[in-house]
Amino acid sequence: MPEGSGLAVLPAARDAALAAGPRVLQPAGWPAPKGYANGMAADGRLVVTGGVIGWDNQGHLPADFVAQVRQALSNISAILAEGGARPDHLVRLTWYVVDIDEYLDSLKTLGQVYREIIGAHYPAMALVQVVRLVEKAARVEIEATAVVPR
Fold it and tell me: What is the pTM (predicted TM-score) of this model?
């Protein structure tokens, strides 16, 4: 490099924690969230799903909200696997529900279903109530973003 050019080549800083997988971002002094993270940081290959609903591989959609969530999470897990990712690589889930009270009334059971499929990994999440979903019988649709460590 020419002397006095003002340019320098610095070694790339690699955060070993990020290389191991997503890291929860929890600002000091904030109350701990229950069942989600305020933020996530990760370094790696991005795997993104579309809006995933709870139909099975035959196109059958259960009528029950919790059953739809169970199948939607299973579908997300299958999509992640297809992309070389696992549920613990998730950094974000966005849930769209047609009835927020139905979601809130099912929290205990939803927590059990979530842990059964995703495990004790809680990425950043958002929950949005919508008027309806494209598939009329769908009660929930979930988008997922995962980062597979390098």
Answer: 0.84
pLDDT tens-digit readout, 101-147:
999 999 999 999 999 999 999 999 999 999 999 999 999 999 999 99
Q: What residues contact residue 139 under an 8 Å CB cut-off, 6+ apart?
A: 54, 65, 68, 97, 98, 99, 102, 133
Q: Is the pLDDT of residue 42 over 50?
A: yes
